[in-house]
Amino acid sequence: MAATDVDIFSNEEKRNLSLGGHVGFDSLPDQLVSKSVTQGFCFNILCVGETGIGKSTLMNTLFNTMFENEEASHYQNGVYLRPRTYDLQESNVHLKLTIVDTVGFGDQINKEDSYKPIVDYIDTQFENYLQEELKIKRSLFNYHDTRIHICLYFIAPTGHSLKSLDLVTMKKLDSKVNIIPIIAKADTISKSELHKFKIKIMSELVSNGVQIYQFPTDDEAVTEINASMNAHLPFAVVGSVEEVKVGNKTVRARQYPWGVVQVENESHCDFVKLREMLIRVNMEDLREQTHARHYELYRRCKLEEMGFKDTDPDSQPFSLQETYEAKRKEFLGDLQRKEEEMRQMFVNKVKETEAELKEKERELHDKFEQLKRMHQEEKRKVEEKRRDLEEEMNAFNRRKVAAETLSLSQPLKKDKDKKN
Amino acid sequence: NTATTKEHREKEYVGFATLPNQVHRKSVKKGFDFTLMVAGESGLGKSTLVNSLFLTDLHKDRKLLNAEERISQTVEITKHTVDIEEKGVKLKLTIVDTPGFGDAVNNTECWRPITDYIDQQFEQYFRDESGLNRKNIQDNRVHCCLYFIPPFGHGLRPVDIEFMKALQDKVNVVPLISKADCLMPSEIKKLKERLREEIDKYGIKIYQFPDCDSDEDEEFKQQDRELKESTPFAVIGSNTVVEARGQRVRGRLYPWGIVEVENQSHCDFVKLRTMLIRTHMHDLKDITCDCHYENYRAQCIQTMTSKMNADKRVESPIPILPLSTPDVETEKLIKMKDEELRRMQQMLQKMQQQMHEQDL
């Protein structure tokens, strides 16, 4: 379409028309619903909390099933994330539920780096989605979305305030994921203590600028219930998969010598509220928020990092294509430059080594010459000595001969004398 | 006849059977003192438990830090001393608190201020004991340390193990399962077994109850057995009094029931109180004096003498007895060396004489 055509359409006024009869597009939401039901839904929960605080039990209680899991040990030397995916079905609705557990959280003596594996995991899921989105041949409609839709942060029921680790971790997570803080094992806090505890926690979160998930109040159907629930945060929950007989009913509860804590009794704990909010009312909104807010933020930051911009210096909108081309050229240029540099370096190195080798050769040659001369010198000396020795031998032989002849003539003389 | 037998018995009677009474009288007059340390993360109910144990309110206006302030908090040591009296017996009770332990994000060596404090008290006592005027020595040594383990986990955490190992040779460590009202009876049993296993496995030396004498009655022995089998104690504390079963008791009020602190089927608070105050308080003091303090003292002396041998200028701040008498071997050597020295001296004298004569 040429640029001028677009202008014509946008300048036209939008008019409201009234219909003369029933057209039938009011079935659009139903069509949407039936499509999504056939597709199936996908929901990812991240549970963050110290070992033994009741994360697995709460998941079992929420979804009314026994997800298989072994007890975690306190002696991990780091924090690990353990995602597990389950296929659940209720009526004709399929849910692909992924529960991500933080193993080893809060157990180390030095917890300064505890939040890092969690943040890395969330970012990786975003990254995977981004990669899929940027592909040329992509299949987003049957992509298994692993982005975390909700983070349930389990607070230990100390009754005083948040722990320092809680504050630090939630601050790192609040811009990446929807956080709902919950007070775990709430059957150890009495009503009055609970009230004070909740107020303290919320005020600490607010004063430190931690953004937790607010149940949406813009949809009239759920405004009222959501607004009232917002006031009950953080939810104080108790989880249990054991059943206890109370009166003539069997309910999920914890049996103490002093009484029975019923999980689904609203005056005992906020479990029912959590279930309502998390699953029955706002699940879809959580998914939407994750995609529209947290993921978009991640995507924008990532692309800006890579150098993409929405508008060029002249304020004309850039198309992704152009930016991509420009980036590619830049990248190739970089690559070539690097190649040149490396080649240059290689050549220089070769020259250097050659020079060194020549130097060494000369040295060796000199040495050889010197040694040769020394050798000749030695040889000459030895020759001289040999000649001297020969002379001496000759001299000695002559003297010997002379002496012998002398001694031979002497005895004759004596004999002659004697005879005379 | 009865008069004469009575007279006879009186003559045989020496009277030192009254010694226990004398000791009792003197000790009541002198009064007792006890120093208890509590350690554990914030929010585990330490102050509440101490209040419940001694039925007073020791922490009237304390300021609790925010999470933000605690991110890089250091461990402090605070002391509260109270004088309490019961049936004429006076007790000077000192509670040593350790706020900040385990609360920071990085808790490397967070027990160091605590071990330093205990060592300081030992050192102070050591100096006082070795001084010249020993009339009024104040004993500030820590007699017992209650360590609070959170009930939310599956057993000991690395920080628990390291803390107890750092303190096991300096003070009597009594581990407790805190806030036990969040555990059902089956869970308490499992956790206690797990903790006992892990304490064994990691070789942590906690305070062991002494075995009772074989001539005690069966009831006492039974009690003692039960006490030993239910360690570590799972405790609950409370600052409030509630109405339960027609009585006013210390407890916690929940929508689903009332937890009574002193009800033995609810928690081990009574056992802890019995052990800590009613039966074993003096044993804790004895072990601190005879065992932990003596270890410290022996170590201290050893390091001092080795330092002195290395550097002659170091003066000993305390009087040290000479080392044990040398054995036969070393005595022989010493004798030999003495002989040699004497001979050399003689030779030297002779040479000097010769030189002198030559000069003349």
UniProtKB/TrEMBL annotation, chain A:
Keyword Oxidoreductase in annotation: no
Keyword field: GTP-binding, Nucleotide-binding
InterPro entries per record: G_SEPTIN_dom, P-loop_NTPase, Septin
Domain Septin-type G: 39-305
The keyword Nucleotide-binding appears for this protein: yes
Transmembrane segments: none
Protein family (similarity comment): Belongs to the TRAFAC class TrmE-Era-EngA-EngB-Septin-like GTPase superfamily. Septin GTPase family.
Protein name: Septin
Organism name: Myripristis murdjan (pinecone soldierfish)
Gene assigned in the entry: SEPTIN8
TrEMBL record, chain B:
Gene Ontology CC: one annotated term: cytoplasm
InterPro entries xref list: G_SEPTIN_dom, P-loop_NTPase, Septin
Assigned protein family: Belongs to the TRAFAC class TrmE-Era-EngA-EngB-Septin-like GTPase superfamily. Septin GTPase family.
Keywords from the UniProt entry: Cell cycle, Cell division, Cytoplasm, GTP-binding, Nucleotide-binding
Protein name: Septin
One annotated GO molecular function: GTP binding
Residue ranges of every copy of the Septin-type G domain listed in the record: 30-303
GO terms classed as biological process: cell division
Gene name as annotated: SEPTIN5
Gene3D superfamilies: P-loop containing nucleotide triphosphate hydrolases
Chief localisation class: cytoplasm
PANTHER family per record: SEPTIN
Site-annotated residues for Important for dimerization: F152
Location relative to the cell: Cytoplasm
Highest taxon of the lineage: Eukaryota
Signal peptide: none
